[in-house]
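[audit] Reproducing an earlier prediction to check determinism. Same input, same settings, fresh worker. If the tokens differ from the archived copy the diff job will pick it up downstream; this log only records the rerun itself.
[audit] input (215 residues):
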Amino acid sequence: MKYKAVIFDLDGTLVNSIEDISDAMNSVLQNHNYPTHSYKAYGNFIGSGIRNLVQKALPPTHNNEEQVTTCFDAMMNVYRNQCIHKTKPYDGIIELLDTLKSRQLKLGVFSNKADEFTKKVTLALLPNYFDSIDGLTIESHKKPNPIKAIQISRNLGIKPEDIIFVGDSGIDMQTANNANMYAVGVSWGFKPKEELIADGAKLVLNNPLELIDVL
């Protein structure tokens, strides 16, 4: 199989964003006099969009829909101003993207992070690499729903089976398989290798440049 494109998850795959996301949410929690969480805890909260993260971060005693919405709006406002303060690409990512571009592969980003922030982070930290950058715009379309991944493949003009989908979570692996793409997990992200394998990873990378071997 000669693959023609690679679609990447963003957080935990291309960039380490845990500190900016955690700091923003903890700021909101502190403003409401709620308990805060560690970076490690936020690693378990990430993956299903910011609203879902807010629900997991709020104390059970203050987790009604109204409070979730209030804190979600506050989180968006705080994170908007600090989403690239500490976030940076993982070691080896730039080298990988340079190699993929030199081989003329189409590249995309597909994240459950809000579309606004997905584009802002990607364009600021990894400019000029991607043919498609897509974040969450419709809640029902978030991963593991394959509808957006399939739409990206159409926009790239490449069949799903000719695309590698790379991510750090079981949700990413489910998305890849649901879209009939080749599911590749990464071990340097926020989720354990066991989760990736259980959710259908065909391969788990320990270093970004190992992806070249798949090609």
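[audit] rerun output stored. Observation attached for the diff report: The chain has two domains: 5-16+87-214, 18-80.
[audit] end
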